[in-house]
What we know:
It is globular and about 45 Å long. It has one domain (3-139): Sufe protein. Chain: A (Alpha-Beta Complex). It is built from 4 helices and 3 strands. Helix content is 45%, strand content 19%.
Amino acid sequence: MSLAEELYKEVILDHYENPRNFGELDPCEIHEEGVNPLCGDELEIFINMDGDKVKEVRFKGKGCSISQASTSMMTEAIEGKSREEILDIVNRFKSMITEDHQPDFEDDLEDLNALYGVKKFPVRVKCAVLSWNTLEKALQ
């Protein structure tokens, strides 16, 4: 395993073992649930907005390390961002995971690059994008 792969593995494990923004928001303006029936991953996303920007975001759920880490990273990536900025991040993330695009996240989103290697394991791609698809649905 290369040094980069080892570092990315550590980032994923850190987000899985110490998820950021874990919990519920009550009350919340936006609530959406997502399920991956193939592996049993489940999550709920809670969002409060300030105008067009995400003021607060939390999640709860259960599932594999990839789905939970991806959701934790996603919450960090979208906090304080506008809907337009978020949809851009969602598109770039999903392109990175499902297509042949190299990661191109700025320094403030660099943890998302750790999930680039998931594309080598097609069965895990759905785990990585579950929260992103759920977020996309929530913002429609």
